[in-house]
DNA sequence: AGCATTAGTATTATTTTTCATACTTAGTAC
DNA sequence: GTACTAAGTATGAAAAATAATACTAATGCT
């Protein structure tokens, strides 16, 4: 690993920042799942109307494009947060809902919402 | 609220999504403050060593550039989350710490960290 | 037959974010 | 008087995210 005995080549060895520097940082890991411009908004929307259909989500998040919404939903599905149920109907019907893992995010999201309600009323 | 008797002109009137569509959404507001790739990591770092100097933050977040770190810190300062204290020394010394408003984010961040610790161990 | 519907995909363009690199400043130590 | 330090700034390039637009597919309705 770090094999510099004299100090003219040392870079980050004088303190243990491993949980931040390396990839074991829970914040970094969490941000991989719920980070980005849309994911928390999508989850919030699905939380408040579960299951949610694609078209409903798109209406709720007025400014998202179809392409982006699809991409974000796929990532959330890939990460085990959402499930996607396709109905064999015409026109197509697809329902998104939180998986059990996704449900564990509900208190996290509620905490964020609560902060916004209390401290972010109109100061921006 | 819902005043569409015949269904051929309705667009967003069949349910009240105003808190998501308009800018009063606490999630949207919160994301303006703590959203983005770096802000939560910066706050986490300052939380765990408060006050924190610029150089310390940069070392902890190995992959951020000076320019980006400065920009993010300025936004957090602008939004009232951080304070910046300049010491009239050479070489310069600047300390960042959470404001009282910033302190109110501590439980939010801890909630996110806790979720990461519990549910995000190694599945990504 | 032709039209509307939903949940997409494909492609290209644009915007936003981040990065890389070089430069600055004022003291202090050599 | 030269080098070093910390915390930046300036500039341009690159990468990532997001958007705009057009297209598809299956089927029910008229």
UniProtKB/TrEMBL annotation, chains A, B:
HTH hxlR-type domain boundaries: 25-124
Entry's Gene Ontology molecular function annotations: DNA binding
Organism ancestry: Bacteria, Pseudomonadati, Bacteroidota, Sphingobacteriia, Sphingobacteriales
Keywords: DNA-binding, Transcription, Transcription regulation
Any one Gene Ontology BP term: regulation of DNA-templated transcription
One Pfam entry name: HxlR
Gene3D superfamilies: Winged helix-like DNA-binding domain superfamily/Winged helix DNA-binding domain (1.10.10.10)
Transmembrane segments: none
Organism, scientific name: Pedobacter antarcticus 4BY
PROSITE patterns: HTH_HXLR
Protein's UniProt name: HTH hxlR-type domain-containing protein
């Amino acid at each position: 690993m770090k094999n510099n005995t004299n100090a003219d080549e040392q870079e980050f060895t004088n303190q243990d920042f491993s949980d931040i520097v390396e990839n074991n940082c829970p914040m970094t890991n969490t941000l991989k799942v719920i980070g980005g411009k849309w994911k928390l908004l999508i989850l919030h929307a699905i939380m408040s109307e579960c299951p949610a259909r694609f078209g409903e989500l798109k209406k709720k998040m007025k400014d998202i494009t179809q392409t982006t919404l699809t991409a974000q939903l796929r990532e959330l599905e890939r990460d085990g947060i959402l499930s996607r149920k396709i109905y064999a109907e015409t026109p197509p019907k697809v329902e998104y809902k939180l998986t059990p893992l996704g449900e564990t995010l509900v208190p996290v999201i509620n905490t964020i919402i609560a902060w916004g309600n209390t401290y972010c009323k109109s100061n921006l």
